[in-house]
Write a structure and sequence with these properties.
single chain, mainly beta, 4-stranded antiparallel β-sheet, 4 strands, 38% strand, globular
């Protein structure tokens, strides 16, 4: 029986710190062990927007990926960030 894809996301903001934990199930039989260009781009962007004010860890477990991200929200250059419109 094939398991459906799943994920769990938790985001908290406390004082001037944002913490995010994402757990993402791996597809059964996935043999692609190469990291995508997306992870490299995320790391570069975090370094530009949050130099020395972020921590990103990605754990590659047997059945899932676990991503932890923490950001200090005390200083960010407004010229580097574009507003995002949310819709539901």
């Amino acid at each position: 029986m094939k398991e459906a894809p799943w994920l769990s996301l938790a985001i908290t903001v406390s004082n001037d710190k944002l913490a995010m934990k994402l757990i993402n199930g791996k597809p059964i039989g996935n043999l692609n062990n190469r990291p995508g260009i997306g992870i490299v781009n995320v790391r570069k962007r975090l370094e530009i927007l949050y130099p020395d004010q972020h921590e990103l860890t990605i754990n590659d477990e047997e059945e899932m990926y676990i991503v932890n991200l923490s950001l200090s929200l005390t200083h960010i250059d407004p010229g580097l960030v574009k507003p995002v419109a949310w819709s539901q």
